[in-house]
Specification:
The chain is mainly β. The protein has one helix and twelve strands; from the N terminus they run ββαββββββββββ.
Length: 233
């Protein structure tokens, strides 16, 4: 396959990449990092190049971005992020844990880097500086089948309670994210499954899986075949 991540404005470059091994070829991803002069990939990447000529759609500098691509198809794997700074920045190297969950990024930034919107910017010394970041995104994978319930495990889900909930979405996680059409979506779906053993008090209440649907109650998975993103909070 061949992939061209980016916009029709041709302002995107890839400078770093790491392989994220999954349980199967279909579940493996590439974590790639590059640069852009627009608001992509936070904004829709399928605008016409003419629209990016509008100064309002330009950053006025170069920002770094990260995303995952499927190694099986080369398509977006549902996770995209743009780093922020008032001046130029670039991610030039990535090292990722094979099991997912953490990645370590190295690069450079000119100005006060803001890894997340709303965070306090890093100190700007007036020149270009080296940066190191630890990125956490909680990579998770599961295979679910239409006509049944769906369960998915998360690496950091020990001690979940009934206020913790997950969403299966075809888009990236964020404000306004909702379950994909066909995913059971009642008030009891997306809740944690108790993996604890009642005979072992030390193990009781340890939950690491989320579940959608219940065949006995005729709540079954009827979503289109494809790859979905697991979001939780």
């Amino acid at each position: 396959w061949t992939a061209m991540p980016g916009t029709s404005a041709h302002d995107e470059y890839i400078f770093s990449m790491a392989y994220l091994r999954g349980n199967t070829a279909e579940m493996s991803d590439l974590l790639i990092g590059g640069t852009t002069t627009t608001y992509w990939p936070e904004e829709d990447s399928r605008f016409d190049a003419v629209e990016f000529e509008n100064p309002e759609n330009k950053l006025g500098h170069t920002d770094a971005w990260l995303m995952t691509l499927s190694t099986y198809t080369g398509e977006y794997a549902g996770w995209q992020k743009q780093l922020r700074s008032p001046a130029d920045e670039k991610i030039t190297a990535i090292a990722a844990e094979a099991s997912g969950g953490h990645a370590y990024l190295a690069g450079r930034a000119f100005g006060g880097l803001v890894p997340e919107i709303g965070q306090t910017p890093l100190v700007a010394y007036g020149q270009e500086d080296a940066i190191l970041l630890k990125l956490v995104w909680g990579r998770a994978a599961a295979s679910c089948f239409r006509g049944s319930a769906c369960e998915a495990g998360i690496a950091s889900g020990v001690g979940l309670d009934n206020s913790d909930r997950g969403i299966l979405t075809p888009t990236r996680c964020g404000s306004g994210t909702a379950n994909a059409p066909g995913v059971p979506n009642t008030f009891v779906d997306g809740l944690a499954v108790d993996d604890g053993n009642n005979d072992d008090p030390a193990a009781a209440g340890k939950r690491q899986r989320l579940k959608w649907g219940n065949q006995l109650e005729s709540r079954i998975l009827d979503a289109e075949v494809g790859r979905y993103v697991l979001c939780w909070c």
